[in-house]
Structures are given as C-alpha cells and as structure tokens.
Amino acid sequence: MVSEVHPPSLCPPTSASASERRQWERIFAALMEMLRQRQGQIETLAGDRKFLQDYVLLQHNRWESKAQLLESQIAQMKKVEEMERLAYAAKLDLMLGLKQMEVSRCKELFENTESDLQDFHECVETLNREISLLKMKSSEGDMRSMSSGENQQDDGHLCSGSTEPRNWKQAYKKLSAKKEAEVTALLAEKDFVWHQFKKMEGEYTGLLKSKQVEVNQANEAAEKLQATVEKLQSSVFDKEEMISNLRADVSRMEVDLRSRTREASMNDEEVKKLQFSVREKDAMIAKLQRELARTEANSRKSSGKKMPRSSKEASLLRRSAGRSVSKGRSQGFLQAGGLRMSSKRKSLTSMPALDSPKLFSSSFKVPKLRHPSPARF
User: Fold this and answer.
1) Rounded CA separation 265/353 (Å)
2) Which residues form a coiled coil (predicted)?
3) 175 burial class (0-12, 13-18, 19+ CB within 10 angstroms)?
4) How far is residue 320's CA from residue 323's CA, in Å, rounded to a whole number?
5) For 243-256, what is the mean pLDDT?
6) What is the pLDDT of residue 58?
7) Section 312-333 average pLDDT
8) Do the beta carbons of residue 31 and residue 328 sit within 8 Å?
9) What residues does each domain of the chain span?
10) C-alpha dihedral over 284, 289, 295, 297, to 10 degrees?
11) Per the confidence metrics, is the pTM higher than 0.70?
12) Please, what sign has the CA dihedral across residues 44, 50, 52, 54?
C-alpha cells in the first residue's frame, strides 16, 4: 500500500491521534471478538469429536456384545437341536425295534394258531372217523344180535329160561349210550375249540390292525420329526445370515469409526493450526500495540526531524494491519468453510457452524496518519 501525502490537518495533532487510536482500538476489539469466536468454535469442535468418539465406541461395543450373545444363543440352539435329534432318533429306533419284535411275535402266534387249527381239524377228522367206525360196529352188533335172536327163537323151547340175550341187549344199550356220550363230548369239544379259534383269530386280527396303526403313527412322527429338523436347519441358516449381516454392520461401523478417527485427527491438526495462528495473531497484535504506542508517542513530540520516520512507521503499520486483517479474514473464511464441511459430515450430532464475524464493511478504509504540522518554537 502506497502512502499518500495529505495537506496539513487543521485539527490539532491530539484529536487526530485520539481518533486513530479509537479506530485501532475498534480493530483490536473486533480481532479479539473474532479470536473468541474461533476459540468457541474450536471448543465446540473438540466436544463434538469427543462425543462422536464415545458414541462410535458405544455402538461398536453394543454391536459386538449383541453379536457374541447371538453366537452363544445359536451355539446353544445347535447343541439342543443336536441332542433333540439324537434323542428322537434313538426313540424312533427303539419304537421301530419294539414294533418289529411285536410284529414278529404276532407272526409266530399266527403261525402257531394256524398249526393248532390244522391239528384241531385233524383231531375232528379223527373223531369223525372214530364215530363212523363206532356206528359201523354198532350196526354190525345189531345185525349179530338180530341173528342171534332168530337162532334163539328157533331154539326157544330148548333154552327158554336163559337170560343171555337180555344181557347182550343191556350191554349193547350201555355201549351205544357210552359211544353217543363220547360223540356228543367230542362234538361239544369241537364246537368249543372252533369258537376259541375264531375268538383268537379275531383278537389277533385286531392286534395286527392296532400294530399297523401304531406303525403308521410312528411313520407320521418320523415325518414330523424330519419336518421339524428341516425347520430348525432353515432357522439356523436364517440365524447364520443374521450373524453375517451383523458382522457386515460391525465391519461398516469399524470403517466408519476409522474414518471418524481420521476426521478427528484432521480436526486435531486443524485445531493445532488454529491455535498456532491464534498465537501468531496475539503476537502480531501485541507488536501492533507496541508500534501504535510508539507512533503515538512520536506523534506527540511533533518534531520536524522525526516526521519522516513517523510517516514511515505509519505506512508500515497500515501495511501490517492490512495484511493481518486480510490474513485473518481469509483464515476465518477457510476455517468457517472447514467447520461447515465437518458439520455436514456429522450424521449423529449436527452443530451449526458459527459464521465468521464481519470486521469491516465493504466501504471501510484503513485510516491514514496525517502529518502533523511542524511545531514552531
């Protein structure tokens, strides 16, 4: 910035220096206000970073504990399902073995019953043959008794007082009654045996039907068990898919955490840079204050010899102030833009970025030091 030469001011030197001092004090106050706002933004950014780290760590721990809990539950479910499957298989094998044993026993009983029935048939046939033989023998006895009766009638006069025919008749009657009783007993025994056979056949038929029903029920139970096992396998597949999804979510959260950590480190670097720039600005402001005080002291002396030096110092002050103001404004805009970008990246807690204060209006110009009139002694 090139300093311009102005005519001597009509106002006394003290009023010009006081107005310039007030102007520089306003500039200094605006710079301090900007620094305080930047410090507040830095503290807000640090708090947001700490909150984000705590939140991401909490989410990571929660997802990790949830994944471990689900894995333990799935492992326990698998163990229970395996034990149930083994128990059902053992029970099914036992039931099938018992049913097979009962079926074999029923088959043996049926075979024995068939053999008993054949024996009964043979016995009945034997009894029938014996009865027919007895009938034949009784008919032959009758014929003999009739022939003997005729002979006895021919010789009646010879042996009229004999009792032998009566004895034969009585013996025949007794024998026929005995044989008829035997035949009746055999027929009754035959009827009883046939009735028992029919009863046993009905019982064995009902037993076979009940065993067949039980076998069908066992088959249905086995089918239901197979369906249950398939459902459990599908649920295990679903749980495994859920675990894979949770692991993918955990990996995404880890990637997000790493990105957040990188952003936090970048924010730390930005904070360090801001702190360094704040220290530089503090040093520059202190230097400007010292130079301003020195310039004011020199302007009060109003000596002709020191006029060129004071004008040079004023031009240097104006240049340094312009550079500091432009530098502070550009850094403020950059920092505000960086804060806005970081606030846009935040998905959980959105803090509105503070707008950088407008130190000067568009029509503001840095005041120029007017050369005081030389003192006349």
Assistant:
1) 19
2) 208-235
3) middle
4) 5
5) 84
6) 92
7) 51
8) yes
9) 13-147+168-345
10) -150
11) no
12) negative
